Amino acid sequence: MKYIVSFLLLPIVLTAEKIDYHAPGKVRQTTFEACKVDLSPGEKYFTAKRQWQGCPTILCTPRGTLYAGWYSGGVGEGLLNYSILSRSKDGGFSWTREPLLVIDSLPEKRIQSLDCQFWLDPDGNFWYFWTQRDYNYPPSSPHHVSVWAIICSNPDAENLSWSKPRFITPGFLRSQPTVLNDGRWVLCAYEWIDKNYRYTESYDKGKSWYRRKGGRKHPTDFDETMLLEQKDGTLRMLARCRKSAGVLAESTSTDGGKNWNTALTAIPNPGSRFFIKRLRSGRILLVNNWHNKERICLSAALSEDDGKTWKHRLLLDNRRCSYPDAVQGKNDEIYIVYDNLRSSAKEILICRITEEDIIKGRRNYNLTVRDSYLGQIINKAPWHPELTDAEKALSERYRHISRNKDANKTKSNPENKEGVIK
Asked: Which among 335, 366, 354, 363 is positioned nearest to 90, based on CA atoms?
């Protein structure tokens, strides 16, 4: 007996999955092309060519080698930007004049290389993070800004070997990751378009990442959050506000990040980046423009009571300086980098101090420890850059594409009444 089997063929309609890249959960890759990693930077990246520079970061290896990074390129923040790697082997007294490595924009593809952020993980790996911005998408798109990284497993080597670039998370990273007591790595990669603070965390030492939502934002143009875990387990996320607030905001969670509450602090800040971290002594270091209106009074402060008060403070620089980053050295010394007048003085500077210096509150030749110093220049670009006619023409072509021009059109900041600078 034969059986005849017939199949009813029905049309199959395939619909594309609508992905909510902003939803909390495992990170979905939002961009697929990294900026250019140049391991042999040429003359166009040299100090003499720079028309501006700023926003530094710093790292110290187990053997005491220092690496500093910042970004430059073009006449300001735009599609000619690149970030720079520099090295010091003598405690910050001298630095490589020209970059060891550059992360460059892809202007022809409208992809910008912005801030870099250095971090030494608990296993001694050097993470070179950078944020890139894709102008092919509007600021409201999750594809617009993203964080990438390359990793060096032996940062004390003379010749550094790096991994291939890897996508980390959507968002904008401008702070060192924090390792929590439960082993989580937390990156405060923020988003302009979200009404809440955002961050990304890893449970497996950076192999995979998960996007999280923090507390409700206090009005801001650049969150630039940093996370501190207090001794009782409370997560305290400090955040930059708009200049009009005159102080820092904070968002706190007592249940590991499930719920958050946001409020203003009493810490003065003029709407600028700050730095906070627990030191090996248990004290908390805060580097901040200790002023509620202007980017002056850059100071290092110490807290003995888990960040409730800041009893000890040392003035580092009273000029118009900004964007501090810091790291503790192998002998517990503290290195702090910052910039001074990005388009005129064009200075990247470093201080080396100790906790005792901050407690004593002394400056200049009165610093407590012999090897401490303030305001040492890492790099200073010339007042008149040495540009060819072709380089001048290229700068002019891209001069109107800047970060702030498009950032201020986001839903979270429809109009920029304060003339915000990054």
From this structure: 335
Please, are residues 293 and 268 in contact by the beta-carbon 8 Å criterion? no
- H/E stretch holding 355 reads helix 355-360
| DSSP label at residue 106 | B
What is d(CA 270, CA 331) in angstroms, rounded to the nearest whole number? 33
List pLDDT tens digits, range 295-337. 999 999 999 999 999 999 999 999 999 999 999 999 999 999 9
Question: Cβ of 159: how many Cβ atoms within 10 Å?
Answer: 7
Helix (H) or strand (E) holding 406: helix 403-407
Angle at 32 between CA 31 and CA 38, to 5 degrees: 110
| CB-based contact 137:109 (threshold 8 Å) | no
214: tokens are 């923090």
- pLDDT tens per residue, range 88-134: 999 999 999 999 999 999 999 999 999 999 999 999 999 999 999 99
Give the residue from 144, 28, 51 showing the smallest Cα distance to 382.
51
Q: Which of 197, 187, 189, 180 is nearest to 256 (CA)?
A: 180
Three-class secondary structure of residue 101 per DSSP:
strand
